[in-house]
Specification:
11% helix; mainly beta; 216 residues; single chain; seven-stranded mixed beta sheet; globular; 42% strand
Length: 216
C-alpha cells in the first residue's frame, strides 16, 4: 500500500457544531458535509480534513496529542484567531491545534499529527509497514504530511478523542491483504474504505475516492 496523502483525522467529540464553527470562523475551513452522525470540515474536500463524530463527553486525549495545520503565512493565519490565542490552542473537547508555516497548495491542510506512544522508536518503525515513509527520528510521512511519535502513555480511555487517521490511496481493497488486523470495511456512496488496527492500537483508514466523489 502506498498512501498518497494524509486525508483526514477523525475524532469523537461532544461539541461538533462548536468545533466546526471555530474552524469555519478562524481556520479557513467550511462544513463539507453534515449528517446525523458526523460533520466533515476542511478547506478542500480532497485534502486534509477533520471528521467530527457525535459522541458523549467528556472526551479523553488518549493517543492524540496535537494536530498541526499548514499555512503559507503563519502571521496572517494567527491574525484570524481570537486575541490572546496561544501557540498551541484548543478548539473544543480537548482537541489541540497548532499552525505551521510552509509551502502548501491548500491553506490549513494537515501538516502533522502528534501521537503518544510508550515506545516512539518502535512505533515509528512499525508505521512503515502501513505504507508510511521515514522522515527522521520518531517521525514518518505520507504525501508530505507527518506522524510524530512522542513519549507518552495513550492508555485505554473509555471515551477517547481520536477515532482514526485516514490516508488516501488509489485502491483500498488490497489493504485487506496486508496481514494486519482489519477492523472494518465500508462501502459508502463517495468512498470505499478499509479500516485496520495500526501501532499502539491507533485505527487507520485506507480510503479510496470513487469516480462519483462529489464533495466540495
Amino acid at each position: 500500500m502506498k498512501p498518497t496523502s494524509l486525508d483526514h483525522v477523525a475524532l469523537w467529540v461532544a461539541g461538533r457544531d462548536s468545533i466546526a464553527d471555530f474552524a469555519s470562523r478562524h481556520l479557513g475551513m467550511h462544513v463539507i458535509e453534515r449528517t446525523e452522525r458526523f460533520t466533515l470540515v476542511g478547506a478542500d474536500a480532497r485534502r486534509g480534513k477533520l471528521t467530527l463524530f457525535e459522541a458523549e463527553g467528556p472526551r479523553e486525549p488518549g493517543a492524540l496529542a496535537r494536530v498541526g495545520l499548514r499555512v503559507s503565512d503563519r502571521a496572517a493565519a494567527r491574525s484570524e484567531l481570537p486575541a490572546g490565542t496561544p501557540e498551541v490552542f484548543e478548539i473544543g473537547d480537548g482537541l489541540l491545534v497548532s499552525l505551521v508555516e510552509g509551502r502548501t497548495d491548500v491553506e490549513y491542510d494537515l501538516d502533522h499529527v502528534v501521537l503518544r506512544s510508550p515506545d516512539p522508536d518502535a512505533a515509528a518503525e512499525k508505521w512503515l509497514d502501513y505504507g508510511f515513509e521515514p522522515a527522521g527520528p520518531r517521525r514518518v510521512q505520507v504525501g508530505g504530511a507527518f506522524l510524530e511519535l512522542h513519549d507518552g502513555e495513550p492508555g485505554d480511555p473509555e471515551r477517547p478523542l481520536l477515532n482514526h487517521l485516514g490516508v488516501l490511496v488509489n485502491e483500498a481493497a488490497p489493504a485487506q491483504e496486508l496481514g494486519v488486523e482489519v477492523a472494518d470495511v465500508v462501502d459508502a456512496p463517495n468512498t470505499f474504505a478499509v479500516f485496520v488496527w495500526g501501532p499502539d492500537r491507533v485505527k487507520l483508514e485506507y480510503v479510496e475516492h470513487k469516480p462519483s466523489f462529489s464533495l466540495r
